[in-house]
Amino acid sequence: MAENRQGSTDSTKETLGEKLYELAKRRGFFYPSNEIYGGLAGFYDYGSIGVLVKRNLENLWRKHFLRLNDNSFEIEPSDIMPELAFVASGHIKNFIDPSVRCRKEGVYYRADHIISEVTGQNVEGKSPEELSSIISEYNVRCPKCGGELGEVKVLNMMLQVRLGAEGDTVAYLRPETAQGVYVNFLRQFNIQRGKLPMGLAIIGKAFRNEISPRQLLIRQREFTQAELQTFVDPNSIDSAEGWADVEGYSLRVLFSGNRDAETLTCAEFSSKRGIPKLYVYYMAKTQQFFIDILGLPLDKFRLRELSKEERAFYNLIHFDVEVYLESLGEYKEIGGVHYRTDHDLSGHGSVSKKSQEVLFDGKRFVPHVIELSTGIDRVFYSMMELFYNPKSEKKEWEWMAFPPNLAPFQFAVYPLVSKDGIPEAAAKAAEKLKARYKVFYDQSGSIGRRYARADEIGIPLSITADYQTLEDRTVTLRNRNTGEQSRVAISNLIEEAEKLLGN
Amino acid sequence: MAENRQGSTDSTKETLGEKLYELAKRRGFFYPSNEIYGGLAGFYDYGSIGVLVKRNLENLWRKHFLRLNDNSFEIEPSDIMPELAFVASGHIKNFIDPSVRCRKEGVYYRADHIISEVTGQNVEGKSPEELSSIISEYNVRCPKCGGELGEVKVLNMMLQVRLGAEGDTVAYLRPETAQGVYVNFLRQFNIQRGKLPMGLAIIGKAFRNEISPRQLLIRQREFTQAELQTFVDPNSIDSAEGWADVEGYSLRVLFSGNRDAETLTCAEFSSKRGIPKLYVYYMAKTQQFFIDILGLPLDKFRLRELSKEERAFYNLIHFDVEVYLESLGEYKEIGGVHYRTDHDLSGHGSVSKKSQEVLFDGKRFVPHVIELSTGIDRVFYSMMELFYNPKSEKKEWEWMAFPPNLAPFQFAVYPLVSKDGIPEAAAKAAEKLKARYKVFYDQSGSIGRRYARADEIGIPLSITADYQTLEDRTVTLRNRNTGEQSRVAISNLIEEAEKLLGN
Question: Fewer beta carbons below 10 Å: N end or C end of chain B?
């Protein structure tokens, strides 16, 4: 079979990261943006197969998080926002990265990143002056050419645009979707008739002028976030409507200062640490999304508490969602649960001079915010790695073990040959399946090669119409995971599919 | 009933446009972006109800246009693209608007717009010098203050961003999604295994620094496009796979130079005008989308041919999709079908020095492009107007007649009272419906007021649980369009809904 496959290189010498990237480019998951122009650093495009998986991911996120209560909605504010909004949010002042320039090559690096690589120190929160003196003290040099480094400077990471005929209106592409929600809070509070808790979500683009974009989809300059901001009465944050459903659910948590993750129930977690039940409830719902819905392995997942030094000062409680990625050799942040208090609304209230106070339950107050943040591209990359299977004795080709709800197609449909009415029989079966499922119809190459093609993009089931189909209206049904094949009547296909795909 | 409604002003004095905008803001269809900061000209946000309708619209577009052939896929390239891509596309040189400044107030206007308003002339394609002399010849003055106008200048309408630590990489937010497809053509052609026709679609944002954004969602600086680029062998453009299905289908067309639209079948249209069948096929599919799927009224719809002067020089054939909008007093472009030939691919080929030629069917050539372009926000606004019904004798409140597939929810569910187990019975019925439909659960206010609330956002069906429900497991089913009510067994709800909603 192997000799039938073209375009694949000898993959044994490649690292896991290289194998994933090769597959991503070859099969259309993702690839560099504007490739014919040599690419654009920090930008990737989703191809035809990637978009199908990304849409599934986004829709599963919507379905899970927006159904947590009847008062949660998606909104779609503009990506471009005025300068004042970022004065209020603090981004104009604080959304800066320490950057240092190699005097030999003129290339910029993140000062904190190269310092911690060389010294092993965590230098988060240090001033440019402090970083500069660490650089000279430890003689930190350019990681590429060994050249001398200049002074550490800070650069704002937002991308500016100038609007109007003379370009005199300064605005920015949002660096996070969250701010788009906060500036809409008051209007939506009225539209949703003044109830708390109220959830507002955005699934959309955010933009950052990263100094050193890297690790493919992990650190991009343009990326997709899915964030749910839940506005709450701070006095009722220690109760959650769905608490009974989660109190016995076990979270996998790494506490700040600890080495290993531990497992404890929501009830234990809340009482031991004095963490409000509503926050714990959202942590449970977050873990359930990644483990139960996306099907990521629990032993590579953890909710990591950030220390006071690591987290933003306005986050009273902050746990990152992390997964272990072998291709990067470390746990990587793919989301977070943040208790942001009234920091954001109060900031916008004071700069806009529109009070963000509401009258609720007989009291006047500025609502607090619990934020669920998901980096869609980072989750996408994680899924590609965690569902990836290399060539093995069992299968002579790479394959993706996407669960059916994430797979780009649930079914591949093949005619055994391209004549004698077999394609028509296959097309008829495909039509039937299309009413319920996404179907990939593939007519060319040997059946083995077609199986490989479907496995590489993670299609869980395939059916083949052959000469027997013309006689008894059955097709061969093949299971991606097991390789098992069975004969199924076309009239039973949907029923059989429901059994196997589990919905 | 009317006295129960709050927040609505005396709507009899308002224009249609004002009524729509008031409803849009009050119920969360759309409203100005960054309102608490006084808004940002040319930017609007979709609210909680608007997003539900917009997602339905986008998904219907996907479903209709991507299923036209098995080789059509959505991709998601970056919104930001490098300068060279726009050198190739011609946007750096040609994507300019003639602009003129009022010397008294300093405000900029589109020179061509204010000239045609005053003189009635169509000045499309005239040079800045020609426009300046028309202004002095006709003594055109500032439309706001009557002040004297300056010289006509041209301004590039793209929004620039500068990437990297020193901002020395110049890039642009794409002014149309199309270019994102063209730079991906070669890679996707390989991924899709070298077949033509090949369709690539983007549903995403585009950005233009409009000099005078106006008419709410119609002319924005940030907007959503849905575009399908179909790459074809120019030699087979006079045949279309689905031709037999459309040849008898009647198009409503306004030919260039004519006053009135006429109706002719695809077959007549193609043979009379010598227009290639594949192009006509896409026109038919476009009209079907707006009329049969979205349900817009045919008598307010037309496909308008652009004259040679009006259309871009590279469009060999160009029909705009237009709808008549009473609130604007004119037919408005909401989409288009464009035969762009090999203009785009050849441009990118020559600037990138990566030949865009393919080997297909034994020949080497640069594929031609037929573009289907849809302005999602413009369609959204059109739908709001065309499905809007003012207060009348029949209904004492405004209502939206969205078809079920566009409505934000298919069902509203009400408990008659908030006690005696009625809410539980209603919730149970709601749960059942949620497996299939989007459901809005509404517990507060009189039933009449709740009906009004549902009608305003266009929910087609509602059910009420009452004391009888506890006895015989039936609910009242109310039809938005007719106001008719009937009793239906909860066990029959889905069946009944399928009948009424037509799917």
Answer: C
